[in-house]
Specification:
Layout lengths: L1 H5 L2 H7 L12 H13 L22 H9 L1 H20 L5 H25 L17 H18 L19
Helix pairs in contact: 3-4, 4-5, 5-6, 6-7
Amino acid sequence: MIASKLAPAYVQERLHADIWNDKSGNGYQQSKALIAIAEGGWFGKGPGFGSLHKVAASETDIVFSSICEEWGLIFAVMAVMTIVIMLAVPLINPARSYFHASMSACICAAFTVQMALNIFGSCNLIPFTGVTIPFISMGGSSMLTSGFMTGMLSAAMSPGFRKVKQRKSSKSKGGA
């Protein structure tokens, strides 16, 4: 509440915009995104039959709405849950050290916040931020960064290698 009151004027304008009265101006993207989610229904119109691809930044900002329109809400939620489950695996497996555990937790939190910002923006719960959904949204720098962060998660899960101490073999006494 305090952050919304202290936000700059352009942010407050986006927070309090009436998207349905200004469909061709400030509310264009969000109204189209909500209409697409509603038109897609539970099972979608089918791949390639959506109209949201005509809207600017439909591959990045409102990709969740695009998936909902063409594939349906059930598929969109399953895609998001798949990513969440993939993020949970590094947190379940024991890490090599406290550093690796905290690094895994922070990377998973970053992925989760990134997905939440995009999904909540598509559903008009918050203004669009321009943040992509990892591995789903189109964008070279997003894919590169997501791949790098996934590599860090894999490195955190890899076992620690230690030198194996060899035992001194005891020779039998009094042998031939």
